[in-house]
Design a protein that fits this description.
Elements lengths: L2 H22 L5 H15 L8 H16 L6 H7 L1 H25 L4 H8 L4 H10 L4 H27 L18 H20 L5 H16 L8 H17 L6 H31 L6 H8 L4 H10 L4 H26 L2 H10 L2
Helix pairs in contact: 1-2, 1-11, 2-11, 3-9, 3-10, 3-11, 5-6, 5-12, 5-15, 6-7, 6-8, 7-8, 8-12, 8-14, 9-10, 12-13, 13-15, 14-15
């Protein structure tokens, strides 16, 4: 058995056990949070864990199909009504990027390239790639972004429950048991999964593995081809894989490095959450037809899949939340090169100039 296969099986086993324990003790979003916590602890203890990119993408696609099934015909009308929130999202991205860049460069002492790509509120994979190409520390960028997602995913459900007094579902259940699932519906949803991922990748949509299946599923459900949603067992496994993948990002790095970068990330995440909270209040005061927590969940820079799952567990408007995070990813990916041009170190500009001669 190869090392990667052994690390993969170990990661899934630890994630599944962690999710099962969390479900047993009635933790909110048990399968995702439980697996994330268990695998993170194992990674920090030096256990070699690994999730293949194709397997994570497949399960992210399942979540996309699930999220698409929550869209309704009324959504088109709401999109126009939500424009102040999208504007607030754009403003918060720019403010967050520069505030966190200042913190990571000045307080944490990171080099300008690493600080900038670690400060962008989203696009983990894209920021790691972009930072690496510019000469940044990819380990630091990866750990800081992964820690941001970890902290936000952990805090949001418990904060919501504490502030509102409402209980949160232990798991996201949608389509009923797998054994009761109709073959026709299964074929339709599989086509949404495969077709959406391929089409979105072909036209180069960011986060294609999630956004493609979600949009394809939304179209299929809106036109009435099916009203089915993925079976509960498949949804639980997808959550386990998402949580396990977050925790496995800490595998293979030195514990001292991880703790140092996690400390930096905690500070920048507090800045991000504070800006998102203030902007959510400003948008809510404009009367966009959404609750404060809906707006906050749409603006806070967690992962698209993770925040959408939290919206489902909190019984909030999933289309509102997911559409904001889709826009956030697009904006971050498009704005990052432009914003970086304003803070690019002079020595990098000089190198680029001489190399073009």
């Amino acid at each position: 058995m190869s090392q990667n296969l052994r690390s993969f099986i170990t990661a899934i086993l630890i994630g599944t056990i962690g999710g099962a324990i969390a479900f047993w003790i009635r933790m909110p979003l048990a399968w995702m949070l439980g697996s994330m916590l268990a695998v993170t602890v194992a990674s920090m203890m030096g256990v070699k864990l690994f999730i293949p990119a194709w397997f994570r993408s497949l399960n992210i696609g399942v979540i996309g199909v699930m999220l698409g099934a929550t869209f309704s015909p009324e959504l088109a009308g709401y999109l126009l009504k939500w424009w102040p929130s999208y504007l607030g999202l754009l403003i918060s991205i720019v403010i967050t990027a520069y505030c966190c860049f200042f913190y990571l460069k000045t307080v944490a002492g990171l080099d300008p390239v690493t600080a900038f790509y670690s400060a962008m509120p989203g696009g983990l994979s894209e920021m790691v790639l972009g930072g690496g190409e510019e000469g940044g520390n990819t380990v630091a960028i990866s750990v800081i972004h992964a820690t941001r997602i970890f902290i936000i995913v952990m805090l949001i459900p418990f904060s919501y429950s504490f502030l509102t007094g409402q209980s949160i579902d232990r798991s996201v259940q949608m389509g009923g048991p797998l054994l009761d699932f109709a073959l026709y519906d299964g074929v339709i949803l599989l086509l949404c999964l495969a077709g959406g991922m391929l089409l979105a990748k072909w036209i180069r949509i960011p986060s294609s593995r999630l956004i493609g299946p979600m949009l394809m599923s939304a179209v299929v459900h809106l036109v009435g081809f099916t009203d089915a949603r993925p079976p509960n067992e498949i949804v639980a496994m997808a959550q386990i894989v998402v949580g396990t993948a977050i925790g496995a990002r800490f595998s293979g790095t030195k514990t001292s490095e991880v703790f140092q970068f996690m400390k930096f990330s905690a500070g920048s995440t507090i800045v991000m959450a504070a800006i998102a909270s203030l902007m959510a209040f400003a948008v809510f005061s404009l009367g966009v037809g959404a609750s404060y927590f809906n707006i906050l969940l749409g603006l806070v820079p967690g992962g698209l899949a993770e925040m959408s799952l939290i919206a489902l567990s909190l019984d909030l408007e999933v289309p509102f939340v997911s559409s904001h995070h889709i826009v956030r990813i697009f904006l971050v990916v498009m704005l990052a090169p432009l914003l970086f041009s304003f803070i690019r170190p002079k020595k990098i500009n000089h190198q680029n100039d001489t190399s073009s001669l």
